[in-house]
Amino acid sequence: MNEHCVFCRIIAGEETVSIVYEDDAVVAFMDIQPASPGHVLVVSCEHHADLFDTPTDLALHCLEVAKQLGPGIREATGAAAVNLFAANGRAGGQDVEHFHLHLIPVQEDEHFELQLPRPGAPVPSRSQLDVMAARIGRAVQKRGEVGRRSRGGGAVSS
Ligand SMILES: [Zn+2]
Description:
The radius of gyration is 18 Å and the shape is globular. It has helices at about 5-10, 55-75, 125-145, and strands spanning about 20, 25-30, 40-45, 80-85, 100-105, 150, 155. It contains three helices and seven strands. The strands form two sheets. Strands 1-2-3-5-4 form a five-stranded antiparallel beta sheet, with helices on one face. It folds into two domains: about 5-120, HIT-like (HIT family, subunit A, 2-Layer Sandwich); about 125-158, no CATH class. Zinc ion binds near residues 5, 8, 47 and 98.
């Protein structure tokens, strides 16, 4: 529990929210300033700054809960899509530094602000993409935290 963290205060029952789902590890509640009606936050009960700071099992459980809630959000709101979003770091728009997933319903004729690819985004050359892929691969390998997964889905430890 971090006294300065609004999500920790919510989880401790010190702030009131409209809860959609809760279990021992995760709570999901309505965003108080929704991007669209039905915008839900899935929050780990333990305080971790972002996805990369969160234990893998807990992060996977948050994703599992998000996956279970999504179709219900779609049904309850009549949305044509439900987007999943997580900001990791203030520069990316993370407003509360306590890991959370956004589930954001999008109606059929609505424009969702984050469109990928961004209109007019440049298309790098294959060699530029290869260089960046190799740079990221080396950085990941140096950190030594990733078990490789084969394309068949089985985990292969590296
Ligand atoms: Zn917190």
